[in-house]
Amino acid sequence: MPVNQDWTRWIWASVSKWIDDRKQGTVLYLDGFDIDQVPPKDCAELRMNGPFMINPSFGYWQVDIEVNILLQITPDDEDAHKLWRIAGIYIDALTGEIPVYKYGKGTQDDQSLLGCLRIRAEKGEEIVLANFGRVDPDIEQFRSGLSAFYRLEITTDDH
To answer: Taking 90 as the threshold, does the pLDDT of residue 75 lie above it?
Structure first.
């Protein structure tokens, strides 16, 4: 079976719902949405790179993605650990498996489980936090980015 055109949409919908359900009251934007708004002092933006499709054998697919969460945090004299606290919320959300459901309203969107995204341990850096510091000297905000690498394995019923 060739690549299913809905896989990418189902993966993005599942990842964005999974992270949104675990944001613990923080402000989360999805890549490409709300870009005309002025972001609040503290927020996160969710992005996805991929999928990168590998078809190592007939009827078997490896679908790799990278999930990125950009954090924008304003320093706070009353909460010196705010960056680390908020980063910890999102690291926790990225840890473990992310179920991929067939979300949507199309003919194949039956809400069933397609499979689970699993951390790619062979990458060597499963979940990475990179601190960029104060990017603009005129704006008192710090930026950090989280990256996590996942693989979804799909077996199709080709014969």
So the answer is: no
Into which CATH architecture does domain 7-155 fall? Answer: 2-Layer Sandwich (3.30)
Domain boundaries defined on the chain:
7-155
Q: Tell me: the pLDDT tens digits for 36-59?
A: 666 678 999 999 999 999 999 999
Q: How far apart are CA 114 and CA 61, in angstroms?
A: 12
- Cα 10 from Cα 14, distance rounded (Å): 6
Q: How many helices (H) and strands (E) does the chain have?
A: 2, 7
Question: Chain-centre distance of CA 10, in angstroms?
Answer: 13
Q: Are 48 and 65 in contact (CB under 8 A)?
A: yes
Specify the pTM: 0.91
pLDDT digits (tens, 9 = 90+) for 99-108: 999 999 999 9
